[in-house]
Amino acid sequence: MKEKKEDRRISRTRRLMHEALMALIVEKGYEEVTVQDILDRADVGRSTFYAHYRDKDELLLSSFEHLRTLFEVQQQAIFAARRTGRAPELNIVLELFRHTGEHHRLYKAIAGKRSGEMIRKYLYRYLYNLLIGPHTEMMKQRTTPPVPVEVTTHHLVSSLLSLITWWLDNNMPYPPEKMDEIFRRLSTPTLEAAFGRRAEEIITSEYSAGSVIAFYSQFIDRGCCPDK
To answer: What is the value of pTM for the model shown?
Structure first.
């Protein structure tokens, strides 16, 4: 019981510091936020802060780990709904645009040189690791892939991050659904070149006729759901 109370206390303290940093970033920009600002907003002591984090950079990345966890919880809920037939196919890129749009003030506030670069590297690693496994699995079907899988994954992730950055920089002129459509149109030639055949053929040859599968589902969770 004592350990559970201690865990809850630690979780609460970290949550307060996360929330303080996010609010301060939106208010004044990451580069202007100091550790003292975070301590004052979260109402915690300096020794408490340094017991958890080395500096505000580590807190920032930890905060994005929290956002990533929330994003993945959303995806698991969608997967669960799909298994019961109560939701449409998962489209991981559409959900990413929606997630970014919901937190657009935060992302735009982090667009400073140092913080922006940190987060871009973080998001790149996260998306690359998310895609490299499924891409590698699909490439096993070909003895000599036309394009190395790591090159394909790098290209797709870099293109996606660039498009998200453009979207935010231009105040989200299109809804997430339109941005997903744009990315699909731009990335289809890449996927066709990487797999050495047309994207439509990948779907029709590996799934039953008439199966409705979201464009990205085959790369993220190929066995998650029964054919519709």
So the answer is: 0.69
